[in-house]
Amino acid sequence: MLLSLPRSVLHPLSLIFIMQSVITMAIYSLPVIMPVAAADLNVSPESVGFYMSAMYITSTVTGLFSGQLVSRYGAPLLFRVMLMLTAIAVLLLMFSTPVALIAMAAILGVASGPMNPTGSQVLAHVTPVEQRALVFSLKQCATPAGGVLAGVILPPVMLACSWQVAMSIIIAAAALFAVFVVLPQPVAVRRAQSTAAAMRDTAVQKQTAPDKQNNSGNTTNSAFSLRKTRHSMMRVWMQKDLRSLTIAAVGLAAAQMGLATYLVVYLWREVGFSEAAAGLVFAALHISGISARIVLGFIADRLTSARTILILLCVVLAVALLLASMFTQQWPIALVYIVVFLAGGTGNGWVGLYYAELARLTPVEQVAEITGASQFFTYIGLLTGPVLFAALLAVTDSYRFTLVAFAVMIVLVGASLAYASRDMRND
User: Fold this and answer.
1) Is 259 helix (H, G, I), strand (E, B) or coil?
2) What is the Cα–Cα distance from 52 to 36, expressed in whole angstroms?
3) What is the pLDDT of residue 165?
């Protein structure tokens, strides 16, 4: 599949994959280190859900301005800034206080918000239509790849040395890639930016010239246009195909992040796994996401629609969550891995199809703008997933009941998407 991609696609795709993997490794580091680091940070292991949600609050806001950031500064510079912010965020955690944990979460949110829309904008300009689902699914494999790196690398280093040493690996990787990885800007994007810059210069000249009809001193050349952002959000909500896709993504995102945030703590505290064993299962969750995104992207390009696949993923994910709620120490380890692979393949496998569908439904020059607007709603799912899991856990004191509740939620999400898809076919 990779060999079929032209170099004009493969080169930026590879670099975007590397950079997103490092950023998401930092994001998923919190659930992995929390069983050991919680005491030093003076927080409970279960509180990790609230810090993950704090990260997605800032990510939700910064993601809204992705289109304007890309058009103003370009994707290469944005990715460098995101990587440097990632290094700074993890460095702050070394102060080992709850305030440092909050600061890390907030800055990581700023770093990760524009990540997906920026990568989507670059790839939308260079990817053939018939390969779009595969390419976008490959790009989104970077997210579970970051989880794999966090689950495989951090626990053994943390247990052999300390969690601080383990987190230093992320700091070094983010800083090095920020300096040495240079993302090429597509020719079409460079031309568009040159045109936009010329238009801005013309507008500034007109505004600075004497204006006899307006002496108020106000300017319309603001750095960012809230009106434009609001228009993009309204378009996502008013356009039926975009709205139904976004609503489905909200539910899937909540389940994905709720499970990813609490899987290690659940296996460690409730099921009786060691920290290292739970970390390996966490890695398996994300490995399955990588393979699923590649396979599902290939299928969506050739055999069926992305929407049909998304509906089926909801069904399988609900079953996997129900099975996960039944884990005990008596379960064969192979069976635990099979269930986690199902949960990871479905809970992580939908994301590439979601971004590919957004690109398909949007003019190429507006991909970052519309993706950022839709992502705003989707990130609501990401930030509420851990909080909802934590709230249910606090009320019921049961990981098993909480997993069943998430399974019911996903069944409702799948039914809603199926109903909306049927209405669209009848229109």
Assistant:
1) helix
2) 17
3) 92
